Amino acid sequence: MKPLTARELECLHWAAMGKTSWEIGMILGVTERTVNFHIQNASHKLQVRGRQAAITIAYRTGQLPARQQAVSVPLRPNQETPERRRQESGRQAP
User: Fold this and answer.
1) One digit per residue, pLDDT tens: the chain, 94 residues?
2) Per residue, what are the HEC states of 13-61?
């Protein structure tokens, strides 16, 4: 089995944390297509089909650490959330 690159492991890590390819792309500063490329390459190297199978095998082979802590990723400035809209308008949360 070929070893996974750092970028492939990084993409699998974020996928294991429940992030979509688009979200992973925003975190890593690459396109969604690039994230899918790295996950697909990792899947081929691990001889599995699909993202979840790649994550499982990476855990089982010790390539991804068993205990991962959730990392809070700040929103980009242009992203809207209900909380942000309340803050900007000066209203209090109900």
Assistant:
1) 789 999 999 999 999 999 999 999 999 999 999 999 999 999 999 999 999 999 999 999 999 987 655 555 555 555 555 565 566 666 665 5
2) HHHHCCCCHHHHHHHHCCCHHHHHHHHHHHHHHCCCCCHHHHHHHHHHC
d(CA 52, CA 85): 35
- Is the residue at 1 inside a domain? no
The pTM is what?
Answer: 0.70
How many structural domains does the chain have? Answer: 1
